[in-house]
Amino acid sequence: MPDKLKISSSHWVLIVALLAAAFTCYLLVKPYVNSIVMAFIISLLMFPIHEKLEAKLPSHKNLASLLSCIILTFIIVIPLLFVFGAIVQQGSKFSQNVYQWVTHGGIQTVFNHPWVVKGLSLANHYLPFDEIQPQQIAQKVGQLATSFGSNLVGISAKILGDATNFIMNFLLMLFVLFFLLRDHDKIITAIRHILPLSRSQEDKLLSEIEQVSKSAVMGSFLTAIAQGAAGGFGMWMAGFPGLFWGTMMGFASFIPLVGTALIWIPATIYLFLIGDTTWAIFLGVWSVAVVGSIDNLLRPLLMQGSAGMNTLMIFFSLLGGIQLFGLIGLIYGPLIFAITMVLFNIYEEEFKGFLNRQDNS
């Protein structure tokens, strides 16, 4: 029976001071936590490549880490630049087409559609609101289309600001990643030394953090890429700019419950209203059968190893993560759930005798 750890009053003072100092340090790095966490997760994904570079450069750890960061930059930044350029081109062309369509009577054609006429008639008859006038709506849409040019300047400025912020966060992440890759052995050793757990419990906890981090990234981002690619193909077949709307559907896939339906449902309705019924049916069926099934099958498949979490737990970890932390919650949510489950398993092992006696009492 091991000796019980005796904690004196001076020890408590030290513990409280340490917790206060740790909290203060957290406040200092809080604005950069997301970049640090992403660097940690990417270091896990990059480690197989980094190990090979380290094996070829055993006495040059700095150079191996620098090469790993450069490889990551080329893997992420170069494709993003090409995709972003194509998105801007297709988005600009699509915006111009919408402007031409609105200013040349396209909105009035929609309001003359029998379905729209009947729908407005039912709405005006049964809903307790002021009467909906198609002319007023068309006038408002026309004003929005006319002011599109000035709005585009504001949107472009915001995109430029977001891009600048992304570059700064990416450079910070690369800086942290360099040290995580170079000093990974020292970091793991320090964590093992500080944790008051047995070696087997440390192995279980660290292994689960690594597994869940990888599966959260792969489950969320690969699902978004797959849905964006499939959705973009369907939109392209239906006559929309494929790359632009495919990218929008990829981003929309991160939104729980609604997801890609935020894009393809309005597109399908639009095709019906302009009389393109065949392509409207195709887009609706393709989006439900193919794009929707990707989210229902691929995400749980990629994340099924997350600490034994079932589909319901994965769903709530993603939903709660986004609600609490934003987009980065797609990683934080499953990670918090998984660590909690591992700690419960450790608790069950440590108090197994007591819990069994409780069950039998």
Could you explain how this protein is built, in words?
The structure is a single chain. 84% of the residues lie in helices and 0% in strands. The protein is elongated and about 80 Å long. The two termini are 25 Å apart. It has 2 domains: 30-194, no CATH class; 196-351. The chain is built from 15 helices and no strands. Keywords: Membrane, Transmembrane, Transmembrane helix. It is a multi-pass membrane protein. It comes from Vibrio furnissii.
What is the fold's blueprint, element by element?
Blueprint: H1 9-29, H2 33-56, H3 61-103, H4 106-111, H5 114-126, H6 134-146, H7 148-182, H8 184-194, H9 199-237, H10 242-252, H11 261-273, H12 277-303, H13 311-325, H14 329-350, H15 352-360
Helix pairs in contact: 2-3, 2-7, 2-9, 3-6, 3-7, 3-10, 9-10, 9-12, 9-14, 10-11, 11-12, 13-14
InterPro entries: AI-2E-like
Transmembrane segments: 12-29, 35-51, 63-88, 163-181, 216-237, 243-264, 271-294, 314-347
Family: Belongs to the autoinducer-2 exporter (AI-2E) (TC 2.A.86) family.
